[in-house]
Amino acid sequence: MTRFIFSGVAVAAVLACGTVEASSSASRATALVTQRRVVGLAAGGAHVAVHLQWKLKSGVVCDSVLFWRPGGKVSRVAGRGCDGDGPSSYFDALTLAGTRLVWVNHFYGNFSYCYGPFTATLRALKPVRVPNGVCDRLDGGQDSSWDFAAAGHLLVAHSYEFGYCGGPPECDTRGPYQTGVTLYSFAGKRFSKIASLPAFAQLRDVDGGRILLQQDQTLQLVDTRGAPLASVQLAERPAAALLSGTDLVAAVGGSLLDYDPATSGLRATWPMAPHGRLGGLVGGRAMYVAGTQLHLLRLSDGKDRVVATVPWLALARAQLTSAGLFFAANGHGAGTVTFVPTARLPA
Asked: How far apart (Å, rounded) are the C-alpha atoms in residues 163 and 8?
């Protein structure tokens, strides 16, 4: 049994072997209970995709993904995620855009190889590979990676090839490198190139037709065509950065810096609890995790509330959406995903 605290109410969730079930607690939080460990969570609005993982006696690691709408049914994404075909990693960079799920698979040998990206929807649960020239397993795609960011039905992808150079004569500078860094948007069942990016540029978030990128200590906003909108220069590299409505938030040195994305002006700086990790930004509230506690911080005045507490080392993932808060906890080899609707969260 896993026990956690939400808004002062203890909620117990029974982890039933061989079953997947949804239940309601006295706190009006809704729980999805499964016999498998939760290793990933991708939420959007009132839907969530849950990445489960387990190991066979042979040592082979198996993966599957569940689609869940709290108060509705649970669906399983079709596809093979358990075989003995060498070391593999399924459902990497799992992201939800509306009701469309996207991810990439990796295979490891002398190099790492990627295959995908794949998409699936609530109405078509069988994965469909999106053709591209970057990520095609053994025919190419060596040491390649994809990241995704989504808001509603806007889905943006970021791909790059990476490696490590030992120095001359192969390269001028010893160390890691990136090539082919590219930004894409998804439309018409394919990814269309938006722009080429400098090495080590990162995709951080998307919202309202805007894309948030990070290059070292600089945050830059561009539109869906790649045209620059605004930029913010930070004193040090942020641990995380998110964009939502009229807020651009960066986690720097244990604090949350709230910027106006239209003017790049700093509105406020609010402290987080020690070791806080930014995990969500919606409607003027930032969600972060500190130890066993999930916090909601109101950006207008800095009011910080603990909204859930989970056992030490049990918290797997947490994500804040416009519909509410999703968080997953593991115990005794199984997992529970809890949904707390916005109406039950502090204003």
From this structure: 48
Q: How high does pLDDT run on average in the chain?
A: 86
Q: How far is CA 330 from CA 60, 242, 286, in A?
A: 20, 26, 24
User: 């600089």: which residue's tokens?
Assistant: 218
Q: How many residues does the chain have?
A: 347
Neighbour order of strands in the sheet with 61-68: 37-44, 47-55, 61-68, 74-76
Per-residue confidence at 139, pLDDT binned at 50, 70, 90? low
pLDDT of residue 224: 95
Q: Specify the pLDDT at position 11.
A: 40
The position carrying tokens 């037709």 is 209
Where residue 13 falls among pLDDT bands split at 50, 70, 90? very low
Distance CA 25, CA 85 (A): 42
User: What distance in Å separates the CA atoms of residue 221 and residue 262, rounded to the nearest whole number?
Assistant: 9
pLDDT mean over 87-114: 86
Show the tokens assigned to 255: 């604090």
pTM to 2 decimal places? 0.89
Looking at residue 23, its pLDDT comes to 41
Query: What is the rounded CA–CA span in Å between residue 111 and residue 263?
Result: 44
Instruction: Count each helix (H run) and each strand (E run) in the chain, helices first.
Output: 0, 31
Q: What is the spatial distance between Cα 113 and Cα 261, in angstroms, rounded to a whole number? A: 37
Give the separation between CA 57 and CA 63, rounded to whole angstroms. 15
Reference 251, options 231, 230, 277; nearest CA is: 277
